[in-house]
Specification:
Helices cover 44% and strands 23% of the residues.
């Protein structure tokens, strides 16, 4: 309601209302419609109030009940219930507030008694305020709060409303409802290399493609950075959902052109279906997430339907995660060591530290089952720090000619503590820095390349040796050899296995050994298990070998016994 200069009607007789509110001229500052009733009759009415209630056939001086009844009649519904509330409030001399909507307007009405005494009152004030614009603004803000600002799609809040509505429909019909959780593959590299502006534009394009695949009754929402959810309603055959999931994977995987950049990403989709997988929104989203996890685990760029055993596997994974968190404090981890043999003099020159976990109930847990999980949940950093400290303590008891190699995870390079931890471990153990070797994989250099290289150079400056593990399995291994002068290249065991199984299996070994010689780097062939492999690797020019033929990984105490058998120089009888 616009501000209107407020004046009392000329025929109004000054009375208690005026004495309570002050002289009439002071009412010019009131921006609301305002009425005062004394002994049931109108004694003061402001201009805005006349604008609102005028033209409804009210008598010259209507009673309070007549005025309120007129306002209540504006409601097409619940008018009787509201008027009953009004009558009750008047009878009890209690205040009341309510809203009415009429002809596109929203009017806020408030009534309050004055001069109360012994359950009666002398009169009433009524305020009338046009809140149409305010309510429209609140409604618009509420709608915006339910939409994703980047894509204009429903957000998590709005999705829940749509999903619960779809599930209510499932309960009253024979149809089904499908929830498809869509996660973009290879989206993070786009953000990291081309910037968030390009990433945001890409998300908007993905939203357009998803919207184009759906029927009007279906819903697509963005619930996270690169996560979307599709709700497919009225499913009568699971083949409909299978077709939709396949279409989503195909469409999102097609090339995008954004600001002159050709971009290719992918999508993994997890699917849950109500009522088969549940009729609760949270349950369905959880099932879809488990199916998505399976799709990603099996190679991405695919879709998977939820299966009951997925939940069982996830529960087992959570139990394993809890056990890992407790294992470090309970001292359940230990180190085994696998010797490395120099082929020129047949001496053990070093040992690789390998993490082992003996669980009180599970027994020996294979490293493949828990190391990747420890990396996922962030525990590999404290576990890795323990490995470094323990390996240095153990190696300090070995013959001085034998080094110790420790694998360092990419996660350890992300923090600032790696160099500090290594320096502390060397100092507390008394191990010479030249006897410690840090093994890294290509994955370390793929993340924050410049920062990682600075850390590697700091380690090298301390006298610590650095080797590249699993060489040849990544697409950038050669370029990384040029970026940092590694001391050692470890040839992945898959190439050693190929040497006796493929006609050209020894060609890779020969090429890497030659590369190592030209760069002045030691080359270690991993996974040597047979005499034939040893003979051919020796012939191809590798400098060192590691594998079951030399020794299986053994506990620290057994390793000390081995060194005592081999003599002070660690001479090996390979």
């Amino acid at each position: 309601m616009q501000a209107v200069q407020v004046r009392a009607r000329p025929e109004t007789t000054p009375g208690p209302a005026e004495s309570a509110l002050g002289p009439a001229p002071y009412l010019d500052v009131v921006r609301q419609g305002f009425l005062v009733f004394e002994r049931g009759r109108l004694v003061l009415c402001t201009g805005p109030a006349r604008d609102v209630v005028g033209g409804f056939g009210l008598p010259e001086r209507p009673s309070l009940r007549q005025a309120l009844h007129t306002l209540c009649r504006l409601l097409p519904l619940r008018r009787d219930a509201l008027f009953a509330q009004v009558r009750c409030a008047l009878d009890r001399c209690e205040g009341l507030a309510f809203e009415i909507q009429h002809a596109g307007l929203t009017l806020e009405v408030g009534i309050q008694p004055f001069g109360r005494s012994r359950g009666t009152c002398r009169g009433w004030t009524v305020t009338l305020e046009d809140v149409t614009l305010r309510r429209a603004a609140e409604s618009a803000a509420s709608e915006r709060a339910r939409l994703d600002p980047l894509t204009g799609l429903p957000n998590r809040l709005h999705l829940r409303e749509r999903l619960e509505d779809a599930l209510a429909q499932v309960e009253t019909s024979d149809g089904a409802c499908a929830v498809l959780l869509v996660d973009l593959d290879r989206f993070k590299p786009v953000n990291d290399t081309l910037g968030h502006a390009i990433g945001d534009a890409l998300l908007a394009k993905v939203a357009e493609r998803l919207s184009a695949t759906l029927r009007p009754c279906d819903t697509v929402a963005r619930i996270g950075g690169d996560e979307f959810v599709v709700v497919q309603r009225g499913v009568t055959d699971l083949e409909e959902t299978r077709v939709l999931a396949r279409r989503i994977v195909d469409l999102i995987g097609r090339t995008y052109m954004i600001e002159g950049q050709l971009l290719t990403i992918g999508a993994s989709v997890g699917v849950a279906v109500a009522p088969r997988d549940g009729t609760d929104a949270d349950r369905l989203l959880k099932c879809a997430d488990l199916a998505l996890y399976r799709a990603k685990l099996e190679g991405r760029g695919a879709f998977r339907f939820f299966e009951a055993e997925m939940d069982a596997r996830m529960q087992a994974r959570r139990r394993l995660e809890l056990d890992i968190r407790q294992a470090l404090g309970r001292r359940e981890f230990s180190l085994h060591y696998q010797p490395q043999l120099n082929l020129e003099n047949d001496r053990v020159t070093g040992c690789e530290a390998l993490l082992r976990w003996t669980h009180p109930e599970r027994g020996m847990v294979p490293p493949g089952e828990f190391i990747s999980l420890a990396e996922e949940i962030g525990l590999i950093v404290p576990i890795g720090e323990w490995v470094i400290r323990q390996a240095c303590r153990d190696a300090a008891t070995w013959p001085s000619a034998i080094n110790v190699a420790v694998n360092v995870s990419p996660a350890q390079f992300k923090g600032d503590r790696l160099v500090e931890v290594i320096v502390s471990a060397l100092a507390s153990s008394g191990l010479a820095a030249s006897r410690l070797e840090i093994e890294i994989t290509e994955g370390v250099l793929l993340q924050e390349n410049e920062r990682t290289l600075r850390t590697l150079h700091r380690l090298r400056a301390l006298g610590i040796r650095v080797s590249m593990d699993d060489f040849g399995t990544g697409y950038s291994s050669l370029s990384y050899l040029r970026s940092f002068p590694f001391d050692k290249i470890k040839i992945d065991r898959s190439f050693v296995a190929d040497i006796t199984q493929k006609p050209d299996g020894d060609a890779v070994i020969r090429a890497i050994a030659g590369l190592g010689r030209s760069l002045g780097m030691t080359t270690v062939a991993e996974g040597v298990e047979t005499e034939d492999q040893m003979r051919r690797i020796r012939a191809e020019g590798c400098t060192d070998v590691q594998g079951y033929l030399v020794s299986r990984p053994i506990p620290a105490q057994a390793l000390l016994a081995l060194f005592n058998d081999l003599g002070p120089h660690g001479l090996a009888q390979a």
